[in-house]
Amino acid sequence: MATYTGTGQYNVTTTPNSPGWTGQSIDSLRRTFGIGDTVHELAPETSIFFSYLSKLGKKPTDETVWKPMEYRSQWQRRNFEAKVAKITGGDDAQITGIADPTGSDATHFMLYCDYNHQGKQVKSTVQPDASDYIGYAPIYITKNQVLRINGISYKITAEPDYFEYSSGSVGDVSTKAAAGTVYGYITIPIASMIVVSTGNAFAQPASGGWDEKGQVIGSQWGEATGAPEGWRDELSDVEFFTQIFKTSVPLMSGSMQATRYRGYANEWKRIYGEHVKSHKMDLENAFLFGYGKYTSADVRNSWGIEPFIRNKGGKKYELAYNGTAADSAGYDVSAGFSYDGMIDVMDDFMNYEGGNSGQKLCLTSRKVINALHKVGSGNFLQNSFDATTSQIFQASLEVKSSSFMPIDITSISTSWGSMNFIAHPLFRHDMEDTAVCVDLSHVTMRPLAGNGHSRDTFVETNIQDNDIDGRKDQIVTEAGLEVLFPETHAVVDFVAGG
């Protein structure tokens, strides 16, 4: 009924229990419902990564572009590589013969490491030959420190000189640089490296470069001496972006909504459920495979875990199905797909001093899972057999259930930790020979939320024009993936083998 209020307005009400009664005011047709905390529960086995993130790693951000800081431990800042080299020149010193100094020509120790000033392990692009690899200056080495090189202890009695590369080939002239230069190496005169350990003395090589591993084992100062030079490291940062996802539930007329259909009586409800699933799978695909990019203030793409690992310093491994390592370039480890090969991967990948948790979620294809369980030739179990006794040795392959969703986990466990393999429905076609191994302690989903507004997944109802006899809704999410410490995550490519 319509009741005149005397103010020039009509107050329209509906009598309860009358035809058409909905239990709510007709002014409340347009609504917004937040479903960010529950949408992952809709068929979680189809969006495994998104479901894990929603359960274990979701933290709002109030910026569309953010740059978190990374701090790496001091473990690696004691180790280095040592060569001997020849230096000519005075104050404008130049170092030559890096690749092959002779024993009689050697004048200096040359020290370098594969960690930069932020603690990141970075492979050199200037020196491509691994046998002649030269990387970063160990800025943590100062006068009066004691070094252990090839089992011999040396005390440094002079401040190191810094050098940087002047060209892209090993052995070419390099030039002296300012103290603290990060990319390059340091040199110390052989005469300033005093042998501390007894019974050993430094012997210059008769030919070829002397190339050994070393580490700092402390410092030694006399009484009543002054303070040493200091050194400084820095935190690293990385940039991430939120991405806007939208899915529309298509317009359906009022007549269709009120019609009972065969097969599925409520067609609107069926279509609605399918589009919510579609939206959730858009999030899953983007967080797995999206390439992060900032195009403009209005257009941003979130990183996906797989491209981020490949492009931002994550680990990359190659395992050969037939058990024979292909030994391709560009991989941290190339091995056969066997227990021994997995040990090689885990030895490189899961060192705890690098910030690893010891538990990796490995999303992969059914093809890889099948190869793990089959005993036939060219499969994980068969490759792990002892050829002489035909007995499986060492291989620990455990199948357990996930506590988050109705899926099975195939776990390979060693003293390093566990690689937990899960068959993911999106790892097919071009991704069927790939596994993405994620350290969930360093991955977070970041929905945008600030100023009292949350852009975590929500539904806007009745977005159609006011004069339309029908209904159209949309599902919206604005969120991005944050991946820290890329060296704690890995991509494993499975190949035919050599």
Short description:
The protein is of the alpha+beta class. Helices cover 13% and strands 32% of the residues. It has helices spanning 48-56, 254-258, 267-289, 305-311, 339-349, 366-373, 380-383, and strands spanning 2-4, 10-12, 32-34, 65-66, 69-70, 79-88, 94-96, 108-112, 145-149, 152-156, 161-164, 174-177, 185-189, 193-195, 211-219, 236-237, 240-241, 243-253, 293-294, 300-301, 315-320, 333-336, 359-364, 397-401, 408-414, 417-423, 434-438, 443-447, 449-450, 453-454, 458-460, 470-483, 490-495.
Question: Explain this structure to me?
Answer:
By secondary structure, the chain is an alpha+beta fold. The protein folds into two domains: 302 residues; 141 residues, no CATH class. The protein is 13% helix and 32% strand. The protein contains seven helices and 33 strands. The radius of gyration is 31 Å and the shape is elongated. The protein starts with a strand and ends with a strand. The N terminus is likely disordered.
SSE topology:
Layout: E1 2-4, E2 10-12, E3 32-34, H1 48-56, E4 65-66, E5 69-70, E6 79-88, E7 94-96, E8 108-112, E9 145-149, E10 152-156, E11 161-164, E12 174-177, E13 185-189, E14 193-195, E15 211-219, E16 236-237, E17 240-241, E18 243-253, H2 254-258, H3 267-289, E19 293-294, E20 300-301, H4 305-311, E21 315-320, E22 333-336, H5 339-349, E23 359-364, H6 366-373, H7 380-383, E24 397-401, E25 408-414, E26 417-423, E27 434-438, E28 443-447, E29 449-450, E30 453-454, E31 458-460, E32 470-483, E33 490-495
Parallel strand pairs: 21-22, 21-33, 23-26
Antiparallel strand pairs: 1-2, 3-31, 4-17, 5-16, 6-7, 6-8, 6-15, 7-12, 8-13, 9-10, 9-15, 10-14, 11-12, 11-13, 18-32, 19-20, 23-27, 24-25, 25-26, 27-33, 28-32, 29-30, 31-32
